[in-house]
Every structure is written in C-alpha cells, then in structure tokens.
Amino acid sequence: MRISIHPDKATLGAEAAIEGGNAIRAAIRARGEATIIVATGASQFEMLDHLVTQDIDWSRVTAFHLDEYVGLAPDHPASFRGYLRERFVARVAGLKEFVEVAGDAADIDAEIARLNARLSGVEIDLCFAGFGENCHLAFNDPPADFDTEDPYLLVTLDAACRQQQFGEGWFATLEDVPARAVSMSVRQILKSKAIVLAVPDRRKAEAARAAIEGPVSNLAPASILQRHPNVSAHLDPDSASLLARR
User: Fold this and answer.
1) Which residue of 1, 57, 115, 152 sits 20 to 30 Å from the alpha carbon of 186, by its own alpha carbon?
2) Within 10 Å of residue 169's Cβ, how many Cβ atoms?
3) What CATH number does the domain containing 169 carry?
4) 201: left (phi over 0), alpha (psi -120 to 50) or beta
5) In the chain, what is the straight-line distance between the N-terminal and C-terminal CA atoms, in Å?
6) What secondary structure, in 3-state letters, does the chain show?
C-alpha cells in the first residue's frame, strides 16, 4: 500500500482525484471505456470537488457506488445515491451510466439480485473509497464477510457505524439511522484493478493505523487492502497521526 500524507484535506482531495483521473484516462486509452466505483461520505467531499474538474471523457465512463441504506429514498439528506447525483453525476458532462443502489426498493432481495447480475463479470478499473471510524470498508462492518463472492449483499450496521453517521450530521437522531444497508462486498472491492483511498480527520486515526499497519483481520475490515497489489492511501496529518511509519 502506498501512503501519501498531505498538509490538509483540500490537498488530499486534489491529489487523490488527480491519481484517479490518471487511472480513468489510462483505462479509456487502453480499451475505450472505464468502469469505476465512487464512494460517498464526508471524507470524499474534497476528492469529488476535484474529480469533476478533471479532463475526462465521461461519456466513456460507467460508475457504480459502494452502498446505500435500506429504506431511504434518494431525496433523503443521507441517501448516498442522492449524494452522488448531486456531487458527482450532475457535475460531469454526459456520464455514460450511473448504476444506482435503490435502497428503498420494495423487494430489496430482488434489487440485490439485479445489481449482482449487472456487476457480475464487469472489469472494474478503479475504486475510490475511504474507511469508517470502525475500519469498515463500504458498509462491511466488523466482523466483515471476507468470503462471499456476491458483488452486493445485505448487511446490518453496527453501533459504531450508526454513531458515525449520526455524528457526521446526516441524521437528526441516532434512532433515525437505518439498521441495514446494501453494500458492495469486500471481495468485489478487491477485484478493482486500482483502489484510491481518501481518509482525512483525526477521528479516522485509529482506523488508519489498523488498516495500514495492523494485522489483516475481519475485525478491521479495511486491513484486507494490505493484500491488494495496487492501493494508494491519501491521508492528512490528523488521520496519519498514529502511524508508526510517517
């Protein structure tokens, strides 16, 4: 895993976006199109602000997203597909396709089956991601399932994850945070050719240490990224503050 420590969140976001933009353009040059995974959450604000300014032929790019709450409509302030519609899709010209996770589908099992059929066998060039305060990867909270081959799965959110979502201001009360979500699986994320992480803030320091320097364990789900051959982690001084190698 390559580690870059940037002086502030703005620089972190810019450098992650530049790296990601280079990978997207390389995929388009190589095979005429690119397929990416786009993350959400407060950690991705600056990265997305810079990504949408990159010189990319978005008409050749298909984007999937990592996860969505079960039962949330896209116009809810915490909806991740609503987040990406506003912060990414609406700001790039002519995106080829945005494959949404419909967390409010009447039949959530059928929605997962649709997503799994859509993503099965697709070559993912790049995954933008972060990780949670509990070291979750997407919504794969500890102990994460490291074995399932299904591209998406239904997960239950743990208390630390739900507290983080409330603490970031996405919900009015902790009780409002849904207990379940549809998440891209760990093994599916690992199938990406490249993974670019944007992880700012002191509250992520413990998770950064576990993910980057701790043993690989499903109790620290993002630690599995140590086994991927092409991961770049962009940190700031706060998120990197507990690392032994800085």
Assistant:
1) 57
2) 10
3) 3.40.50.1360
4) left
5) 13
6) CEEEECCCHHHHHHHHHHHHHHHHHHHHHHHCCEEEEECCCHHHHHHHHHHCCCCCCHHHEEEEECEEECCCCCCCCCCHHHHHHHHCHHHCCCCCEEECCCCCCCCHHHHHHHHHHHHCCCCCCEEEECCCCCCCECCECCCCCCCCCCCEEEEECCHHHHHHHHHCCCCCCHHHCCCEEEEECHHHHHCCCEEEEEECCHHHHHHHHHHHHCCCECCEHHHHHHHCCCEEEEECCCCCCCCCCC
CA distance 20 to 126: 7
Q: What is the pLDDT of residue 246?
A: 60
Buried residues in 71-94 as b, exposed as e (16+ CB within 10 A): ebebebebbbbbbbbebbbeebee
Computed over every residue of the chain, the mean pLDDT equals: 96
Q: How many domains, in total, are found in the chain?
A: 1
Find the domain containing 89 and state its range.
2-235
pLDDT over 80 (residue 140): yes
Domain-embedded: residue 241: no
- The reply to whether 82 falls in a domain is yes
pLDDT band at 169 (very low <50, low <70, confident <90, very high): confident
Q: Average the pLDDT over 203-208 and give the result.
A: 97
Residue 244 maps to a domain: no
